[in-house]
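TL;DR need structure tokens for one chain.
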Amino acid sequence: MFGSTSSSFGGTSSFGTFGSTSTTTNSLGLGNTDNPMKDVEVQSPPDDTVSALKFSPKADFLIGSSWANDVRCWEVKENGQTVPKAQQFHTGPILDCCWHDDGTKVFTASTDKQCKMWDLNSNQAVQVAQHDKPVKTCQWIQAPNYSCLMTGSWDNTVKFWDTRQSNPMMVLQIPERVYCADVVYPMAIVGTAQRGIICYQLENQPSEVKKLESPLKYQNRCVSIFRDPKRNNQPVGFALGSVEGRVAIQFIEPQNPKDNFTFKCHRSNGTGANVQDIYAVNDIAFHPVHFCSLATVGSDGKFSFWDRDARTKLKTSEQLNMPITACCFNSRGNIFAYTSSYDWSKGHEFYNPQVKPKIFLRNCAEELKPRKK
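>> reply
TL;DR here they are.
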């Protein structure tokens, strides 16, 4: 059984059942079924690739943004069943979404160069940020002495916004386009084109701590900050995923150089001898309770659970018939959400409009417990 939720939104309208198709046809060379793990299927998923999934910090409400220009919200019931609650739109694909810390508002970043704030109680959305090119990332920052929205764009800027004002509080020029970002106060990490990593501290006001070159050889795809329970649960480093089927674990201030390491994932044996098929790591999520446990999802249509400290794999899923593009845990860490949809890794000729995205919920409470040393 999944945990119960106690929150509800007033004034939202259900967006009903959108057309969905279930098919096992597949030309990607992946699995033959859309739900091999027999997980709970979320009702009324978006009609195009899901770019981000995020659970509310306050209750079991899930949001998902998509290339169909929309963001949707579902309530997850105690039995794992989902209730579609509401939906909002941009004029272009939505590349990222995040929650306000109070659990009543959602932020969305779009190729239409805007970020919007969606008030779930009134079901109204207003523009709160603007860039010169598509906005790739959005993160809410809740500091003791300020709160703001951080946005990263392909216009080579990171901006910080007081949502009550039309101009940004701060604009940081960076060397390249923003590809991924994460925030766990007081740390922010931004991954850019050309394998760049920029680390920021957020106390008092955001400022750059250091620039790094990715320890991975190929393009940054996703980044997720991890905490250290021995240091009062403070953020101490990040996991970086790339298009080459590899993840780097990086501490900002490693106590031992061997603390930093990389590992291979989302690879499979190819057709020839000593040949591996290598897939992109599309998303990384750290467990909110067991800080050393993390999930990775990839273009190979699989998710994997890992123990960072023991440097071991805890579980790998069966192979779905589509890539897994995004994932997240709920705030208590007993539900793992993941979504299968085409990620364009094999080009437009492999896009099948008949195969619609799906979002699944997995009861993961036992599977993510760290290995006993």
